[in-house]
Amino acid sequence: MVAETDTNVAESTEARPDGTKWYVIHTYAGYENKVKQYLEQRIQSMDVVDRVFRVVVPTEEEVEVKNGVRRTVQKKVFPGYVLVEMLIDPQTWEVVRRTQGVTSFVGKSSNDATPLEDSEVEAILRKMVEEKPQVRITFDKGDRVKIVDGPFNEHLGLVVDVNPEKTKLRVLVSMFGRETPVELDYLQVEKQ
User: Fold this and answer.
1) In sequence order, which residues have a C-beta less than 8 Å from that of residue 39 and are 6 or more positions away?
2) Within this chain, do residues 127 and 171 fall inside the same structural domain, yes or no?
3) Is 174 contained in some domain?
4) What are the tens digits of pLDDT across the range 33-50?
5) 118 and 176 part of one domain
6) d(C-alpha 102, C-alpha 48), whole Å
7) Residue 46 class from Cβ within 10 Å (0-12 exposed, 13-18 middle, 19+ buried)?
8) How many domains in the chain?
9) Whole domain around residue 46: which residue ranges?
10) Nearest C-alpha neighbor of 116 from the set 162, 74, 81
11) 64 - beta bridge partners?
């Protein structure tokens, strides 16, 4: 079984041979998914499917609010790194190391690969599957915003507080000749 998709990373797997560990490989930044694809192809073509089991690019969902529109994006947790579950031997070492885009194994030296602790891997894989999407904060105190939804639509304001847990902002809006604080959702405003 080769390289499960990232959505299935937390599923239990069949028994692996003794000595199977998770390793981290360093890649060129921005090429993590390509390296995963290339490595999965090489695992098949070099016939090491019995010793290289999974290739994972750790990601988490992030909610991005831009111009009042909320969308979910996949964010790499460790840019420039890919996890590989494998039984390391000279052949599997070469298959992984010689994959296009792989710069090295992470270890004490360039010719050494230090395995991850099981607890570290479990935490990474669990986080990928279980955690709620994080909201990317695009507002800071002092930002000028325009309200685009609700009873204060079309008013301009100044952000005085950001509550990322609730995705809410406190904005000073000029009404009736004075500044009035109002609480708004990220979706109700856009930066000016």
Assistant:
1) 3, 52, 55, 82, 84, 95, 96, 99, 102
2) no
3) yes
4) 999 999 999 999 999 999
5) no
6) 17
7) middle
8) 2
9) 6-136
10) 81
11) 71, 136
